[in-house]
Amino acid sequence: MIGRLNHIAIAVPDLAAATALYRDTLGGDVSEPQTLPEHGVTVVFVNLPNTKVELLEPLGEGSPIAKYLDSNPSGGMHHVCYEVDDIIAARDRLSEQGARVLGDGEPKIGAHGKPVLFLHPKDFNGTLVELEQV
Amino acid sequence: MIGRLNHIAIAVPDLAAATALYRDTLGGDVSEPQTLPEHGVTVVFVNLPNTKVELLEPLGEGSPIAKYLDSNPSGGMHHVCYEVDDIIAARDRLSEQGARVLGDGEPKIGAHGKPVLFLHPKDFNGTLVELEQV
């Protein structure tokens, strides 16, 4: 069912500093920042040959990333995103197997303009899993 | 400098249960377990079309994963591994930029039989970074 690793996401307290780190120290190819107010984040992508790293900084009130940074002030690995062909079929299969889908269980439109769902980290060894239909 | 994302590693308290989760619930292609006594881990790889997820269970006394699981009993994202062409050149560049290399700074042979180094998570937004020469 799961296909490509679409991205890994890293929460960071200072997006400009993190972008400079990935660009200058690690020599990565970084995007311009994109503000996504409906997700409460500003995002920079580090484009690798086979996948992406998504650097996430909180944006606005109630950002889910702000809560994460309260517990992890210097940042950390926030989630992984796997691609699926059919997000509704994936959701139904996961629910049948007892995995919990976050929110109301309906896909939302994610950072790439495609339907996404998040799965409860307690059901996946402490790892927040995003599924994206591609 | 950084090339492909070679893998993301997830520490798990029960490798058999995690393997079943990734195989049966997420529908991933999982490897047989491999014991790596010199690294203090037993590993299962989830082979995705573009990269791998490495599931890590502690093996033996003093496993670095055991310490991680003490703080994160249900598991969690442990590290990310980027490929580099020349690990010595990468190390020297990183050191010049102020990033700390763990251990004695000399590459060790990793799970794939290739030279690896780990970078201090405090220098990379709370993310433990492995570099592997390919």
UniProtKB/TrEMBL annotation, chains A, B:
CDD domains: MMCE (cd07249)
Keyword Transcription tagged: no
Cited InterPro entries: Glyas_Bleomycin-R_OHBP_Dase, MeMalonyl-CoA_epimerase, MMCE/EMCE_epimerase, VOC_core
Enzyme class: isomerase
Gene3D superfamilies associated with the record: 2,3-Dihydroxybiphenyl 1,2-Dioxygenase, domain 1
All residue ranges annotated as the VOC domain in the record: 4-134
Enzyme Commission number(s) from the entry: 5.1.99.1
Metal-binding recorded as keyword: yes
Keywords: Isomerase, Metal-binding
Family to which this protein belongs: Belongs to the methylmalonyl-CoA epimerase family.
Protein name listed in UniProt: Methylmalonyl-CoA epimerase
Source organism: Pseudahrensia aquimaris
